């Protein structure tokens, strides 16, 4: 593995551990409350509808459906890696949630949600799937205009889903950041796997 990837993984792991520290030691929720209060200051009927819609795209069932469509259309090694990314993120997220056992915010929620909070499953899974699709768009799509449009849409979904989960009141910001960090590590490992497959195929 290239040194730059090891450095990025180390940084992402440090970010995840920092957010875990917030969960364990910031009992007054100073970090999370400040971000939540900032976001709800923008609440209005239009944004409520917008973020409810965006958060739907991070729903595991929605993402699994998109993965299935991708598999049916392409049926290649990218489909396999995308499937691995989705399944790994679901399994790892579930394990960590049941170890940490952080309750969801006890605040006004715009959507119903159950289960533990840390790390955010929507954030983690969306980065693992949409993030890998972002990478594929960058390296597979030859048309410059189509490539950048695809990347803009995927990038908007990735960050929009994370923000939406705090906005609708079902996650703390630290949940989202931790989910992003873990998913970022998985994306790097997937890219390394793809590079290894390419080398063996030569």
Beta-strand content bin: under 5%
Q: Find the count of extended strands (DSSP E, 2+ residues).
A: 0
Determine the N-to-C terminus distance. Answer: 19 Å
Average predicted local confidence, pLDDT: 88
**How many helices in DSSP terms?**
8
| Sheet with most strands | none
Description:
There is one protein chain. The protein has 202 residues and is mainly alpha-helical. It has one domain (3-201). Helices cover 78% and strands 0% of the residues. It contains 8 helices and no strands. It has helices at residues 3-25, 30-40, 45-56, 60-74, 77-100, 121-140, 144-167, 173-201. Helix 1 (3-25) packs antiparallel against helix 8 (173-201), helix 4 (60-74) runs antiparallel to helix 5 (77-100) and helix 5 packs antiparallel against helix 8. It is globular and about 45 Å long. 33% of the residues are buried.
């Amino acid at each position: 593995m290239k040194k730059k990837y090891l450095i990025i993984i180390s940084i992402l792991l440090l970010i995840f551990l920092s957010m875990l520290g917030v969960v364990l030691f910031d009992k007054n929720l100073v970090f999370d409350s400040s971000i939540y209060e900032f976001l709800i200051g923008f609440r209005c009927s239009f944004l409520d509808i917008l973020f409810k819609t965006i958060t739907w795209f991070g729903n595991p069932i929605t993402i699994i459906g998109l993965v299935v469509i991708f598999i049916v259309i392409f049926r290649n090694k990218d489909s396999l890696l995308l499937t691995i990314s989705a399944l790994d993120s679901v399994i790892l997220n579930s394990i960590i949630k049941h170890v940490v056992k952080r309750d969801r915010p006890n605040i006004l929620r715009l959507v119903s949600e159950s289960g533990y909070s840390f790390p955010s499953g929507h954030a983690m899974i969306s980065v693992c799937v949409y993030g890998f699709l972002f990478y594929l768009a960058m390296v597979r799509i030859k048309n410059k205009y189509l490539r950048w449009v695809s990347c803009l849409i995927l990038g908007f979904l990735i960050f929009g889903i994370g923000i939406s989960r705090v906005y609708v009141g079902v996650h703390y910001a630290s949940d989202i950041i931790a989910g992003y960090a873990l998913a970022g590590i998985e994306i790097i490992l997937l890219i390394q796997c793809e590079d290894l497959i390419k080398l063996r195929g030569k």
